[in-house]
């Protein structure tokens, strides 16, 4: 799939995350692979580990990003965050877009797992496009609380796009 089919909200989120060539990144909920395509294009020695609970999401990401999978820059797995096992303190960044886990229910175990595995100075980037603008405050409240309770320093990023917001947790 050509890069120009990547939605503006995904481009903004990946640009904001400021991917560096040596970053080791976890993407939660890779879906169709648009963010994975952008992230991998910026990595040189770094790697992206993309997960999704959906088999179709994993398959679409693998197809879209086949060259990155073949190069070893991208690994894609069908798994949920709660059962994920990655080496401790090896991630520089964690990325997700529209993963409701962080604002719709208790996710203390998942956030604790991220806190253990993100390097000091690293960050968790949670981006959302709300179905309705009035949902934005609820999303910010829920995701911010989850990250704060998990030991992250949190700030909110305004995308300047209607209903699109970012919540960043720094370790």
From TrEMBL:
Q: Which Pfam families match?
A: Methyltransf_25
Domain Methyltransferase, residue spans: 25-122
Lineage, top-rank taxon, reads Bacteria
InterPro entries named in the record = Methyltransf_25, SAM-dependent_MTases_sf
- The molecule here is called Methyltransferase domain-containing protein
Q: Which organism is it from?
A: Nocardioides nanhaiensis
